[in-house]
Structure formats: C-alpha cells, structure tokens
Amino acid sequence: MSVQPRALAPAFVGAYALGGAALFLAVVLGVPGVQLVMAAIGITVVVATTGAGMQLRQVKGRRLLIDTSSASLWFRPRASRGAWMVATAASTLAPVTAMIYGLVKGLPGSSSRSIVIGTSVIAVVGLIALARMLWAARFPEGLGMTELGIHGIRGAGEAHLM
User: Fold this and answer.
1) Which of 22, 75, 110, 135 is most buried as measured by Cβ atoms within 10 A of its Cβ?
2) Sheet containing 73-75, strands listed edge to edge, beginning at the edge strand earlier in sequence
3) Residue 89 near residue 59, CB atoms below 8 Å
4) What is the DSSP letter of 61?
5) 68-86 exposure pattern, b = at least 16 Cβ within 10 A, e = fewer
6) What is the distance between the alpha carbons of residues 125 and 80, in angstroms, rounded to a whole number?
7) What's the CA angle centered on 131, arms 125 and 135, to 5 degrees?
C-alpha cells in the first residue's frame, strides 16, 4: 500500500480549516448553547484530523515491527495507532456532551432542533466506532507466521493463508 501524504495535504488543510471555522463561530456567535456545541465540534474535527494524519504516518512501506515475546514470528502495528483511533472515536462524544450540558444549565440555543439532531448523529457514529474497536480488541492485532502458514487478525475476523 502506497500512501502519498502530499496528495492528501489539501484534504487535511481543508479539515483543519473546517475545525477552525467551527472554533471561530464558537467565539463570535452570541448564543451560549450554540457556542459551546460549536467549540466541541471544532475540537472533534481537529482531533479526528490529527488522528487520521497519525494513522497515515504509521503506514510505511518496508517497515515491520516484530513482537519478540511471541512464540511465533508475529508482526504487530504500533501501539500509538490504536490510541489515536480511540481518541478520535471518543472525541465524537464531545458535541453531544456539550449539548446535554447546555440543556441541563438552560443555555439558550442548546435545545435547537439542528443542534440536538446533529450532535446525536455525531455521537451515534462515535459510539458505533468505539463498539467496533472494542469488538476487534478481542483478538491481538497483527500477523503471525508459523510453519502452518500466515495467520492473523485484521479487526474484521481471522485470516489464514497457507
């Protein structure tokens, strides 16, 4: 797999600009509930974009990490890769948390239909991503090589190659 970071640079700049725009709106808008939610959305976008960037930095051709504690030859991904994915998925809960806080405190704009629906959709996507990560965590990440062949877990199920 060949990843060209330079080809993706405009997408990352655009994503950071979107996060910056949400943070800008959080500062200039005069509705406290909306300000709080926009700040949380801005933070979510920045964390998700940084997480995606860190994921792409981990993908490098001709680099393998070998787990020396394994009985077989076991290739494993870097631990920071999973941490960034969990942080990205967890950050999607920030907007709905801000909306609920605004509702509890009675902040104007927190009960707006678009705020409630938008933050709820973002939270559902984040919870599905977290659940998928927890489900995939049942098995060790990586790829093993024994005399019986190559086997491993890729998060979606076991893979066996003879």
Assistant:
1) 110
2) 66-67, 73-75, 142-146, 149-153, 158-161
3) no
4) T
5) eeeeeebbbeeeebeebbe
6) 22
7) 145
Render pLDDT for 51-95 as a digit per residue (tens, 0 to 9): 888 777 766 665 666 666 666 666 666 666 677 778 888 899 999
Q: What is the pLDDT of residues 8-62, one digit of tens each?
A: 788 889 999 999 999 999 999 989 999 999 999 999 999 989 888 877 776 666 5
Cβ–Cβ under 8 Å, residues 88 and 48 = yes
* Count of positions (residues) in the chain: 162
Q: Which residues contact 110 (CB under 8 A, 6 or more apart)?
A: 33, 34, 36, 37, 99, 101, 102, 103
Amino acid 42: pLDDT: 94
